[in-house]
Every structure is written in structure tokens, then in C-alpha cells.
Amino acid sequence: MHTHSALSDEETAQLDAHWRALNYLSACQLYLRGNPLLREPLRAEHVKPRLLGHWGSAPGLGLVYTHLNRVVRRHGQEAMCVWGPGHGAPAVLAGAWLEGTFGEYDPDRARDAEGMLRLFRDFSHPGGLPSHTAPDVPGSIQEGGELGYALAHAYGAAFDNPGLLVCAVIGDGEAETAPLAASWHSNKFLDPVHDGAVLPVLHLNGYKIANPTVLARLPEDELDSLLRGYGHDPIHVTAHPGTPPAETHRALAAAFDTAVERVGLHQREARARAGSGGEQHRPRWPVLVLRTPKGWTGPRYVGGKPVEDTWRSHQVPLTGVAEDPHRLRQLEEWLRSYRPEELFDGQGRPAADVLACVPEGDRRLGAVAHADGGRLVRDLPLPPLERHAVALKTPGSTSHEPTRVLGGLLTELFEATAERRDFRMVGPDETASNHLDGVFAATPRGWQAQTLDTDEDLGPHGRVLEVLSEHMCQGWLEGYVLTGRHGLFASYEAFAHIVASMAGQHVKWLQSAREVPWRRPLASLNYLLTSHAWRQDHNGFSHQDPGFIDHILNKSPQVVRVYLPPDANTLLCVADHVLRTRDTVNVVVAGKQQCFDWLDLEEARGHCARGLGVWEWAGTEAGGREPDVVLACAGDVPTQETLAAASLLREHLPQLAVRVVNVVDIARLMPRSEHPHGLSDAEFDAVFTRDRPVVFAYHGYPWLVHRLSYRRAVHGSLHVRGYKEMGATTTPFDMVVRNDMDRYRLVMDVIDRTPGLGVEATGLRQKMADVRTRHHAWIREHGIDLPEVAEWKWPGACG
């Protein structure tokens, strides 16, 4: 039974009035700074001095906005839209202004002539509105400047939102990107019982900036085969430059009705089967293929060259209008072609017909709560850490796999959110590899495709999502947290770089959102980077890259955080912290291999709260004496090597006063003026001294520590060891030797940099160098590390 019926002439006229209003408002945003309603002839002084923005995709996006309004109003459907062609922002801004949302957030943009003019003047203006979708745009959840993420964001928004329809408008330029191409497979992970639905709208207007688009030039049967191969049922609507608008409105309304009907049918059938214990089947969800001319309804020719339905309409189709009277008249004719006098009254208020299709209240596309997820987010029911912490009598007396310990906490968190379903974990097929597979006791991997008897931990309602596309994982999680939920992205450290650009865009979104008064704080986006560079000895050079930290710390200090917990209990404390934070991007780097436990839970809590601290039990300071040398470390492997070096110095140079400092929050190295977690100079000097040699073993590239601390008084005495692109398939200890961060090299550094030790400790230095030489021969003969390394324990550790 079909729920749609033919549009009446009145309904068709109302939809067309709304669409014409959107097109008028979109075009005027590019051009006008005066005379917003064209109540007088257009003059040069009414035109902006700089013409910025993008027109080409705006009419098509406006058409979708108009018809989504009708869907929400007619079907009572809760819906939101992810606008992939972000440079079509004038249409989205126009829609939010026309429905009244903009005016509610900012009275200066009210639905009248003054508010309209304010919208026009603010567009692409310093201190105003950006030229693409951004946090300033009501109803938007993604930065529109970088393409490829709309579909993944839409699925992330739909997960665990069973009543929500998420429309994802995909531009045909965006459809050429690798992240978008992979994201079509997201339908194999969408649970029709507990999740909402995603309705992709593939908007084909034929061109990118200056070239045709691939999908728009495919024959329809080939495009259909592609989309059906992805698991979708295509519904086509095509408009040409000469197509009467009424014909397009009727076709698109019928297409949306059909799509909504099919979505509802799939969900009802799946939920009925789930209620009766029946077997689940993956639906073939609909996809709308909407073909419209690029720059539709705009100037057909400019300067004798075709513009409408060509790449020339991508940005500003008419230039030089303030200087060329002929072009000024052409602009006026174009704007008047929308008949604004029929769309707005004398005060600039929209006519009744224009608003006839617009939903009310929070059902409006610009006002929907899911697009401002801070309105919906709740604190997570995090379990007490005592239930998962590891016990130890003395530092180094026990060892655990930190991520496996964390897996216990995450398992309990999944259990605690089983009903509310607002926490998910994503990752590229590495949950078990990263020793987090304990979570499968609480939830399986989400999976809607075929299953075999040999499969394990797969289930149609699972909340762990694994797919070998970091882009999809990142996009899903972003869409999930942007719509008011929580999550964790666990990945091999080296391959976090794959989503570096996406992470950067999300940081920019959060930074910009902080400046938008009506945006409320979101749950943070959390990375757990494990299987890290120092313990990828078996996979080799390709898997050894700690540089994602550098990328993140280049971004806004108000948003980014990086933590390097040295053992299991500090990882628990850091995880507990980041899962409670708001409006940040947190990067946690932790090992999955057996690792010494250095701190009990209370010590770990205090240490993480400080972000760094002196481990007095590890050093040889006494009687309030200032140290002769500082051994600093950040990261689990650097911490072990530093403590091993400290034990060698304790044994061979007992008269040397050694201070051991461990850093968990790497931003603590920065000045407080540069990062909210930074230390004042006095605090920094109290830990690292002002002039004593500091030998720093760091998890990542050593120059980052220099960059973060270059203003400090001690910087001239700071020597950093870290990863320097010396990787291979080798033994664990050989990795630190290759990169000169091993315990023996650290002892040699102390001897070389501590005044007075050069002569006194010559023999010890030679002994350290000899061990390194012996190490090289040993691993080539035996394939394993030296016994004194493999069997090393902290002196005094007891089991």
C-alpha cells in the first residue's frame, strides 16, 4: 500500500514558492548588501564589493530542503540532513532563516527585511558567516569545506536513534572521494531494529569546479548496477534546464514518499521479527538519485558563454556586476525572476504559501536537537576504577597488558549502557588484536551481512563496529558524538594518520562551535592508539609511526589533548577522565603488550591529575639536594628504558643525584599561555630545574618535545631521545637500540652531559657501548633479546 498521492496544484505551488524563496535568498547572499527586497531598481552600491560563495549546488540543495520539510510535516517523521556539498551553504542558511530558526538563535537575523539584509551582509564576510556549512549553520553537523564524509556522518547519526531518518545529500564531486566510496558499505552495519535509517540522496548536477563528474556521466543502467551492488534500491528523479518546476516537484515528492514508505516497511518488518525471535535480514534500503542542472534557475549565458548546467556556475556565475551596467541589469533580472514580491510582504516576512511546507518547533531541519547533540548528551555511567585496577606491592612487582585491563572497564561500560545505547567503539578490525576483545562478553560486533558457522562475536545488534576503513570508523564516530552520544576509536597507532585530515576538520568544528553561543558542549572524540611503534617489531617498518601526536598537537590548544599513560592503572585513570570530557579531541597512546605496573590506583590517580611528576622512589635524590641530572620519560616503553637506566646509574654511580620524571599529559610541557594544560615557568622549573642536564626518553619524534618546551630556561640543557624513523622487523629491544633510546644509550647521555662525569665514568660509558655492540650480534644469532634485557626487573621488585 502506497502512502503517497499526487500533489494537488495548491501543494505544488506552495512547494515551488518555498523553493523559489530559497533560491532568491541563496543568490542574494552572494551579491547583495542593500535593497534586499528589490523595492527599488538595483544599483551598484547595493552590491557587495567582494563576491564570494558558491551558487552551483545551491538550487539542488534548496530543492532537497523544501521536500524534506514536506516529508517531516506530512509523515510526522523526525528527520535531519547531512549536507555533503558543503559549499552549497547559501541554501542551507536560507532554509534556516526561512523557517525562523536563525532568528530564534540571533534576533538580528529575524524573519523580516532587516534580518534578511543581515543574512545577506554576513555571508562570506569577516566576522559573519562562512561560505560553507559550519557550526554557525543551524541543522548542520559537519564542516563543509572538505568532501567525503557525509554518508559516514549520516550513519553515525542514525546508530542507536531508532526513530530518526537521516538524509545524506551526496554531491557527485564528493562521490568521487575514497571515504565516500567506502561509506556505501555502511548499510551492512545499520541495525533496523535499534538504529534509525539513512536515506542517501545522490545529487548529480554534472560538474565539479571545472570538470565533469564521474557518476553523472555514467549511463543510468551502469549507475543502477553500482548502487544495487552496494545494496541499495535506486529511485530516480531527473530535471533538465527546461523541465517545468511543477513536474520536478511532483516527481520528487512521489520519490520521497516511496523512499519513506520503504524505510518504514523495512523497520516494521525487522522489529516484528526481533520481537518474535525471528532471523534478521539485511534490508535493501532506498537511495534517491536526483539529477538537476548545476546552477539551475541562474543565468543561462554570461558574456556569450553558457553558465547554467555547466561548470561555470560552480561559484559566482555573474562577476563584475558593480562595474558593468549590463551585468548589473542581468543580475537584477535574475533575482527578479524569482518574483520576490510574491514571496515576502512589505516588511520582508515570508508569505503563507512559502511556509506552508515548513514543520513546526524542533521538527524544523535547522532546529532538530540531533544536529546540536549537546542538547541530548548524558554523562556515561562509568564504573568504579577499583573494580578493574591492578594491585601491586612495590613498583614493577607485577605486569599486565594495559589495554586488556582497560577492556574490563569498557566491558562494564557496555553493560551499563545496554538499555540507553549511547556508547560505541569503532576500529579497523583490530579489537581482538588490540587485546580489547573482552568487550565481546557484553556486546558483539555489529554486523548485518551474511554470517557463517565459523564466525565469532558477530551480531545484528552489536555496538562494536569494525571495518577495514579508518575513514568509515572516523566518520561513524564523528556522526555519533555530534548527535549526542559517546565513543572510542581504537586503532593501530601508525594508521591513525589515515584519518589525520578528518581529525583536523573535527578539531576545527569543535573550535568554531565553542564560539557559537547556542551550540552546547559535546562528548569528546576519543582515540586509543595502541599496537604502537615500539612494539610493532614483528610487523615492521610500515607499522612504526608515532606521528599522529604531532599532527594533533599542531591543532587548537583549546581542543586537543594527548596522554601517554605508562602502565595499566594510569591508563584506567586516563580513560576515565577522557570519557567524561566535553568538546575535546583526546589521543591516548598505550601499549597492549605485557608491561610493568609502576603505580597503584591511588598513586596513578594523583599522577594523572598532575599530568607529570617526580617519581621519588625511582631516583637517588636525598636531603633536599638539587639533582645532578634529570631523567624524564613519556610513554610506556620510554618509561621502562628510563627506569632501567636509572637502575644502572644507581648501581654504577651511586654518588650521582638522579631525578626521574614521568609525563602523562604531554601538553604540560607547554607554557600555560599556549595551552590550558601547560605549566607556568615556576612549576616547570620546580620539576625539571632551570639548568641541570635533562635526558628525555619520549614515545614519539624527539623534536616535538623540543618544540613544546623551547621557551623553558632548561631547554639548552635538554636532550631528547625518541623515534627517528629507524624501523624494521626485529626484536622489541632492538627497536629502542636502533633509535638510540635504549637504557645503555641513556646512561651514556647522562655521562656525556653531566659536568664532571666525563673522566670519572669513562669505563662505565665504554661498558654501555659494549653491551650495545653485543646486542647486535646476539639478536642476529638467537633472534631474541639479550637475557639481561628480557629478564630485567626493577631492583627491589617483589612478586
Keywords for this structure?
799 residues; alpha/beta; Rossmann fold; 3 domains; elongated
Short description:
With 799 residues, this protein is α/β, with parallel strands linked by helices.
Characterization of the model:
The protein is built from 26 helices and 22 strands. Helix 13 packs parallel to helix 17 and helix 19 crosses helix 23. The termini are far apart. The model has no long low-confidence stretch (mean pLDDT 95). InterPro entries: Phosphoketolase, THDP-binding, Transketo_C/PFOR_II, Xul5P/Fru6P_PKetolase, Xul5P/Fru6P_PKetolase_C, Xul5P/Fru6P_PKetolase_CS, Xul5P/Fru6P_PKetolase_N, Xul5P/Fru6P_PKetolase_ThDP_BS. This is Probable phosphoketolase. Its EC number is 4.1.2.-. Its cofactor is thiamine diphosphate.
Indicate the proportion of strand residues.
5-15%
CATH architecture of the largest domain: 3-Layer(aba) Sandwich
Strand order of the largest sheet: 12-9-13-14-16-15
Using DSSP, what is the number of strands? 22
The CATH superfamily of the largest domain is Thiamin diphosphate (ThDP)-binding fold, Pyr/PP domains
Class from secondary-structure proportions: alpha/beta
CATH topology of the largest domain: Rossmann fold
Largest sheet features: 6 strands, parallel
Please give the alpha-carbon distance between the first and last residues: 72 Å
Low-confidence stretches: none
What's the Cα radius of gyration?
30 Å
Overall mean pLDDT stands at: 95
DSSP helix count?
Answer: 26
